[in-house]
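can u pls check wat happens w/ zinc ion
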Amino acid sequence: MNQVALYLNLAAARVKADGDLRYLMGPGAPKISGGGNLQETQILFVRDALWVANNDDADTVLQKAILEKLLIGTPEALVEHVEACQTRVFKRMKLGTKEIFVPPGSPAEILLAELAGLDDAGGKRDLAYPLALGALPVAGKKPVGYALQPPGTGTAPAVSGIVFVTGNYEGTVGSGDNEHAEQKLLAALSRVPDSVRGTLALYGCKRQCSVCKSVFDKAIPKVASSYRYLNCRAHDDPAIENYQAQAHPSGIKALDVDRYFPA
Ligand SMILES: [Zn+2]
C-alpha cells in the first residue's frame, strides 16, 4: 500500500514538471499547475478513509487537484488506479545527482510490463498509457481537504473517503519549523473520536527521520491505549538510493505529543 504514497508523490512530480496530465493522457492532456518540494508523501488508513499528507502542503494541494481531475474520490478507486498504473508509468532512477523518470528498460522490466499489458483473455493491450481516462473508475465524489488547526482543536477530519490533511501542528519548544507528513497525520488522528478503533496503517516513501521516529515512539503507547495502532512501513527499496541516504535537515518540528494526546 506504500505504492499509493509513492504514486501520489511521483504523480505530483510528473505533473509539476509537465504542467499537465500527459503522463496519463499524452499530448493535449488537461493542464494542472502547482506542487512543492516533493520531499515526502505519507498515507494513513483511518477506518474507511485514506488520509494523505506531505511535508510540503503545496504537494498536497496538487495531488488533490490531480485526483479531482481524474474523478477519483474513494480509497478503492485510488488503489485500483495505482495498481493499473504503477508498473507501467513510473520508474525512478538515479542519474548522477539527479533523479529521472524512465520507461521500462531491462528485459525483466519489459517482461513485467508486457505481463501487465495482457488482458483477461491473454490478449495484448496498449501499454503506452495505462487506461484511457474515460475508463478510469468514477467515484462520484471528490476527495476532501482537512486543515489542521493546532493544537489539536477544531473539527474532526472525515473517516471515510480520501482526505487531504494540510496545516501546521503545534511543536515542542525550540523544535524548528519543518513539519513532516506523518506528524501531520498523527496530529489529525488526535481529533478522531475514540469510537474509531482498529489497526491504522501508515505508509510512506522514505524511512522515518529520527525526529518523527521519536515522536511516534512517544505517541504510539498513548494511541494504543485507545486500541488504535500504527504500523509504519517505509519504502525500503535499496535500489532507490535517495530513500536510504536522505539527509535530514535540521529544524524538523517535533509534534507536542502531550498536547495532542493528553494522558
Ligand atoms: Zn520526519
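Residues 26 and 129 are 8 Å apart (CA to CA).
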